[in-house]
């Protein structure tokens, strides 16, 4: 889902480079100079992370329709926020911090929507009957088990296993202490192991 370049010509004042050969940090530096007229560095950053970004959103939110919406919003926020990104953390950490906040916003929005539908005695599943996006319960592997933990623990597991972030990076993104993050991670895994064991016994 790379963004479309605003301009097709590169100003002669900016040297040509192969964005695929640069590190994230070097691409960020180029983006500081180029945006918003040239999006070459930005597009490469998005290309590197778009698949994992989508997987993180889909596993947290539970369906691909909402995940796609959140991904688009995240990409816009990155586009307009790159010039102000100071590099105090890794680009990847900053990206998933934005993703986490957008997922939380979307999750709360959907939860309020379902409460309204319940109050009106409507079936939320009936409203979404035309949607083809698969629900998280229908998937296998990690998705199958994420429904058994609360949203915060789910995000910790997703950031750890899908985004492959370090515990300190996850703690920074979720504004939690490192020990608290590790504790919640361990408890979530213990809960999933217990659930898995119960299923195997039945």
Automatic annotation (TrEMBL):
Residue ranges constituting the RNA polymerase sigma-70 region domain according to the UniProt record: 45-112, 145-194
Keyword hit for Ligase: no
Annotated GO MF terms: DNA binding; sigma factor activity
One biological process term in Gene Ontology: DNA-templated transcription initiation
The entry's keywords: DNA-binding, Sigma factor, Transcription, Transcription regulation
Entry similarity comment: Belongs to the sigma-70 factor family. ECF subfamily.
Protein's UniProt name: RNA polymerase sigma factor SigX
Organism per entry: Stutzerimonas stutzeri (strain A1501) (Pseudomonas stutzeri)
